[in-house]
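Hey,

Quick one before I head out. I ran the complex with guanosine-5'-monophosphate overnight. Inputs first:
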Amino acid sequence: MKLLEERIRRDGIVMEGNVLKVDSFLNHQMDVDLFAEMGKEFKRLFADRPINKILTIEASGIGIACITAQEFHVPVVFAKKAQSINLAGETYVTKVESFTHKRVYDVVVAKKFLGPEDHVLVIDDFLANGSAANGLIDLLISAGATVEGVGIAVEKGFQPGGKLIRDKGIRVESLAIVESMDPATGEIVFRKQ
Ligand code: 5GP
């Protein structure tokens, strides 16, 4: 998606440790007009799928997921990061390793919000090693729900997450795929899509 690529080029900051900082329009301050365009693009890409729910993970995925959900007219469920689980009977639980904080979290969704009748689009801001997306897919498998696809704003194509999820036979659509980025020069190269 050209608009997103241009914005990343203009305002994204390449950090050490393979982190792309997009705080000014996506991860801290949020450009909702840009989110609206992203939501329309996800709708176009997944128009053929019978999606009745969107699943994301707190916190950064929520904004994009909500605006995307307005296009599909479906509810959003966000998986919560928890330190310890004491509601195991009432929740689906999995573990996710945070890329940015290098910690492992329990991630939970209440059972009453996901079930076998659901056809779910997973939405997140970034795809890096794939732990977050994989954890969300895990929760959907536990619920017996159908994974209709994964929609990502920014995939870092030089990290293994995209291949990991696609190799499961799951459709992944990323609005921008970063092929390489250099913290020394700030140069960002996108994959042609
Ligand atoms: P993964 O689980 O695929 O390794 O990483 C995905 C999660 O880590 C996303 O939910 C996102 O919050 C965070 N993340 C991964 N890479 C980046 C990055 O380069 N920049 C930012 N801002 N967040 C990232």
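The chain has a mean pLDDT of 96.

Talk tomorrow,
K.
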